[in-house]
């Protein structure tokens, strides 16, 4: 049985408690804001156990229903994990790019952001990290990237190619920066990345074979620390995807306005 984590200390500025009573019709939202602020400030850290519901009710001066609603919101936001059992409760989670990515994917899916928009962001971000990848990548990174290319080629040979392999290559390339912020940012874009790749593949089913050739060339540029060549390959690689998406997606009103000729 794993050792029980100590409960986080709950005090505020006046009485020595971190969590203070709130009085508002949006009480559960205010509780969420307080807990979120404590996590962001480092006063609550991953693995910390929030006080039991009864104690939180007393600290906040609210009903158990309100506390449970706040906990549901925190859990949905990936900030806490609700565990059941003798050693259960609400525990602060370790932030991951998967949780961030799920939120970004939902946001983009529900908005008017297009696959072409996503690819334009990728052009700025993924071309921009190439010099850092060339300077930071080690043999483990190169081996991992090569293994992904091997799996891409095996899938192509059997007609079972999945664009998820291409997305995996790009997120693993970001990991080769050895910069956690870049890795999490690119990884969090995994869902939108799949969206753009899937749409691009519809206009050019052969893109998988051309793509893996460029992936191999990128690995070689990283191996020789040739950032200029790597940037060129990545720019051409992503620009081709963007061009295919232009053929498939109708222009949004904003894009039509940008491309419309000026009138005097």
Automatic annotation (TrEMBL):
PROSITE patterns in the record: HTH_GNTR
Domain HTH gntR-type stretches: 25-95
SMART domains in UniProt: FCD, HTH_GNTR
SUPFAM superfamilies linked to this entry: GntR ligand-binding domain-like (SSF48008), Winged helix' DNA-binding domain (SSF46785)
InterPro entries found in the cross-reference section: GntR_C, TF_FadR/GntR_C, Tscrpt_reg_HTH_GntR, WH-like_DNA-bd_sf, WH_DNA-bd_sf
Keywords carried by this UniProt record: DNA-binding, Transcription, Transcription regulation
Example of a GO MF term: DNA binding
Domain of life: Bacteria
Segments crossing the lipid bilayer: none
The name this protein goes by in its record: Transcriptional regulator, GntR family
